[in-house]
Amino acid sequence: xxxxxxxxxxxxxxxFQSRKVKKDILKKIVNSARLAPSAANLQFLxxxxxxxxxxxxxxxxxxxxxxxxxxxxxxxxxxxxSVYIIVLINKKRSxxxxxxxxxxxxxxxxxxxxxxxxxxxxxxxxxxKALRKILNxxxxxxxxxxxxxxxxxxxxxxxxxxxxxKYYLDSQGNLVVPKRPLKEVFHYNSL
Length: 191
Ligand SMILES: Cc1cc2nc3c(=O)[nH]c(=O)nc-3n(C[C@H](O)[C@H](O)[C@H](O)COP(=O)(O)O)c2cc1C
What we know:
The chain is of the alpha+beta class. The protein contains six helices and seven strands. The site of flavin mononucleotide has 14 residues, from strand 3. Flavin mononucleotide binds at residues 11-12, 14, 64-66, 121-125, 156, 167, 177.
């Protein structure tokens, strides 16, 4: 898919098929993260892929889904992601990591995933202490985010909205995500 259309099409997905994601696809996704822009090219980010069932089952309870949907956005039994990418900051590589690197790298992950037909949810509301323990993550790594991945079992679409920011479910249970209209954010030569 052409990049512009891919960017327009990308939406957060929180319900997944149980089908596994092949390791070579996961490698390509991390490759796209590795090559993201990096302030001073410090490249302090690393990625822990978790797809072993006994681990994904332990990770799941430590993630918070779709705060605005009050429980209705949490994947139900059989809809859980089949893979997690744990986004790690290697503190040996930078004492003062520029978090804009995380944004660039995670967006590459989301778009590369979509190009392989996968849905994804970037999660910041995570229990880092519990994840560190379950996944045996040494203290010189800081856990930044988790990206949940899998083949999608949900659709989501955008509506233009000046005021509303809360995503919601329509009458068919599909996600609707308000986004500020282009004319409101596009400033040309002056504000
Ligand atoms: C830094 C960051 C943290 C996020 N954390 C969560 C989270 O903890 N749980 C969740 O369900 N979604 C999370 N999201 C997804 C947002 O809710 C989602 O991007 C937003 O509602 C807009 O929807 P869209 O991605 O389809 O454009 C996060 C997104 C970002 C960028």
